[in-house]
């Protein structure tokens, strides 16, 4: 016999298992060094762009273990859910949110491709300038800081087994 409690208790959302990792991605993207020493604009767009960078590096690492592909899907779905909620919180209406989410997912997809460029390469440099500073050339020390931080984060992620990464509630420091 099925209990009434079972009938009215929803199954847990499997994406929630990736919530600590999503929170870690956001925290890593909000690290002050990106905005202070790196000169990334501390604006809504700049924050989104940093989340896109960190998210791309994490998803690249998860992609290296095909058995963990669902974790990458769940992490991406949390990205979409969180961006939707953030836009609604700042006052975007239903008619606008869908279009904006589509643009954000498209932007993330573009960054996934662009940030596959090797560390220190001209291609990575160009992708960072285009995405983080919207094509405006940053100072040499700022660009160097972000390029070094990106390489450090990628190296630290590569050193983590993917099973540890997807269970993480903190990412390695990139400063």
Describe the structure concisely:
68% of the residues lie in helices and 0% in strands. The protein is mainly α and 175 residues long.
Distance between the amino and carboxyl termini: 57 Å
Report the major sheet: none
Outline, from the CA principal axes? globular
Low-confidence stretches: none
Summed up, the domain count is 1
- The count of DSSP E runs of length 2 or more, i.e. the number of strands, is 0
Report the total helices: 9
Order of helices and strands: HHHHHHHHH
DSSP helix fraction: 55-70%
Q: Percent of residues in beta strands?
A: under 5%
Give me the secondary-structure category.
mainly alpha
Radius of gyration: 18 Å
Mean pLDDT: 91
What does this structure look like?
- It contains nine helices and no strands.
- It starts with a helix and ends in a 9-residue tail after the last helix.
- Helix 5 packs across helix 6.
- The protein is 68% helix and 0% strand.
- The chain has one domain.
- The protein is mostly helical.
- The model has no long low-confidence stretch (mean pLDDT 91).
Features:
mainly alpha, 175 residues
List the helices and strands and how they pair.
Blueprint: H1 4-8, H2 19-29, H3 32-36, H4 44-63, H5 69-89, H6 94-114, H7 122-132, H8 140-159, H9 162-166
Helix pairs in contact: 2-4, 4-6, 4-8, 5-6
